[in-house]
Amino acid sequence: MGKLDGKVAVITGATSGMALAGAKLFVEEGAHVFISGRRRDALDEAVALIGRNVTGVQADSADLGDLDRLFETVEREQGVVDVLWASAGTGEQGRLGEITEEQFDAAFSLNARGTLFTVQKALPLFNDGGSILMTGSNASLRGYPNWSAYAASKAVLPAYARVWVSELRDRRIRVNVLTPGQVATPVLEQVMDEQTKAQFESLIPRRAMGRPEEIAAAALFLASDDSSYVNGMELVVDGGTTVI
């Protein structure tokens, strides 16, 4: 018996990395999963990789029309949502004094605005007793140089969670933030050279980055009844980076 048997899950930004690993695990645990992503080719590859009980919807989570289309598809095919993992996000380095309006707007449009409207548009379909989780970042906890706009756009998520716990308590919908640290994902590999990667790994007590599967396991905990008494919390999964 799987931990998500019979559940319907929606995971945004799930064409690679942590969210893709989570989609695979959720299916293995019995859920039907809807995944979204901006690129059709990457979305098709992700659906093929997962192989069963998955529906791919091409959608940009910063585009409210795309979000409408995503949840219209969910409603048409399954009718309800039990788990929402709002994972779509973006980030670009920018040092104070050099940050452009475009960099700021891109970070807040997807990470802050897109996440809020993803949750809001999912709510009419949500079963009572469901679980919402959002992907944060330990950049909002540690103060890495050159990441202020990105860190700030992720710092709003725990505030959302605290407020929404109060607003959704009558429906017993839990809201939590999953905050990973440095994780070896394809996107990270593209933006980091070996020197930068080594610098990041030096901050992690075990001296090795996280794996997408490790974040997926934490997401499954928050999605399932294993975390039935966890609500309004930020679960930091960064190997201890932020505590030393």
Structural account:
With 244 residues, the protein is an alpha/beta fold. Helices cover 45% and strands 17% of the residues. It contains 9 helices and 7 strands, in the order βαβαβαβαβααβαααβ. The chain has helices at residues 17-28, 40-50, 64-77, 101-122, 139-142, 148-167, 186-191, 194-202, 212-223; strands spanning 8-11, 32-37, 54-58, 81-86, 126-135, 174-180, 234-237. A 7-stranded parallel β-sheet has the order 3-2-1-4-5-6-7, sandwiched between helices. Strand 2, helix 2 (40-50) and strand 3 form a beta-alpha-beta unit. Helix 1 crosses helix 9 (212-223) and helix 3 runs parallel beside helix 4 (101-122). The longest helix has 22 residues, at 101-122. The chain is globular.
Structural features:
single chain, 244 residues, alpha/beta, 7-stranded parallel beta sheet, 9 helices, 17% strand
What is this structure's SSE topology?
Elements: E1 8-11, H1 17-28, E2 32-37, H2 40-50, E3 54-58, H3 64-77, E4 81-86, H4 101-122, E5 126-135, H5 139-142, H6 148-167, E6 174-180, H7 186-191, H8 194-202, H9 212-223, E7 234-237
Parallel strand pairs: 1-2, 1-4, 2-3, 4-5, 5-6, 6-7
Helix pairs in contact: 1-9, 3-4, 4-6
Computed structural class: alpha/beta
What order do the strands of the largest sheet run in, or round the barrel if closed?
Answer: 3-2-1-4-5-6-7
Largest sheet: 7 strands, parallel
Order of helices and strands: EHEHEHEHEHHEHHHE
Share of β-strand residues = 15-25%
Q: What is the rounded distance between the termini?
A: 39 Å
Kindly report the average pLDDT value: 95
Total strand segments: 7
> Residue ranges: pLDDT <50 for 5 or more in a row?
none
Helix content: 40-55%
Using the alpha-carbon principal axes, give the shape.
Answer: globular
| Secondary structure tally, helices | 9
Radius of gyration: 17 Å
